[in-house]
């Protein structure tokens, strides 16, 4: 398969589609949906789980839209539209986290407990760096108008649901306008992140979700189809594992908005790859699809479907030639 240029090019396109599907962060969103909503400032765990269910239903609903669009729009256009929408919605997600970081509440109360002397939590002056420190949490009080008496304190080693000591270590006090925030900061921009998640899945589901599998089932000749699909599926699961495994580490080192800007940039690279290298396979026979990969790898993207082709006729000047009966008999 690798020694035959058309199938080698088809394999690179098929594996590239599966790679960029995962690099756009889809399984990060699906696996960590509730966690991402909590990171955005949703305080109640039950609310975060229900909102994650809403985003998952969006994925299901818009996948059905993709089934309706695929034979009307074509694989190439649907995939391109999907990935550029995915790129923009990831940017919106990142902007939501960026706004939360820029308007993060300050630390206004510095505890005098002796255990805080050598703690890294004592060095944080804002909620954002406190939240990014895995050993710290944000303890604060809140009334109907404002947030006050906020501090960055060590988290309990047995449970992240309360502080190691102080007012946020007492379950009774936590019920009386005192709140403990671990892994998130209180913010009024949670709705931006929720909107970004819904738009992300709305754009991803009809195109970038199913199209890599659909296209991989079409671009290989019969003798190479099983190998091509196996290789592309292997690439999909490999990058699924890598992206899912590294998300929390990437978020900790690049911040949450940095992580989603990274996924947005990778999706943009995927857009240019698909634009240059993916031909339209709609309404094409197997022999025609194989011929699309006869040329160099990234010259096939501009190939249009049969219905978009135009035939141009030209008139060639020449002279009429009259055949005699003898000449005609010679031709016969």
From TrEMBL:
Gene3D superfamilies: MFS general substrate transporter like domains (1.20.1250.20)
Cell compartments where the protein resides: Membrane
Annotated Pfam families: Sugar_tr (PF00083)
Assigned keywords, A-Z: Membrane, Transmembrane, Transmembrane helix, Transport
Transmembrane segments annotated in the record for this chain: 49-70, 82-101, 189-209, 230-250, 256-278
Principal place of residence: membrane
Domain Major facilitator superfamily (MFS) profile positions: 1-282
InterPro entries (UniProt xref): MFS_dom, MFS_sugar_transport-like, MFS_trans_sf, Myo-inositol_Transporter, Sugar/inositol_transpt, Sugar_transporter_CS
Keyword Transport: yes
Entry's Gene Ontology molecular function annotations: myo-inositol:proton symporter activity
Membrane topology: Multi-pass membrane protein
Source superkingdom: Eukaryota
SUPFAM superfamilies assigned: MFS general substrate transporter
One Gene Ontology cellular component: apical plasma membrane
Keyword Glycosyltransferase: no
Family classification: Belongs to the major facilitator superfamily. Sugar transporter (TC 2.A.1.1) family.
The protein, known as: Major facilitator superfamily (MFS) profile domain-containing protein
Organism name: Oncorhynchus mykiss
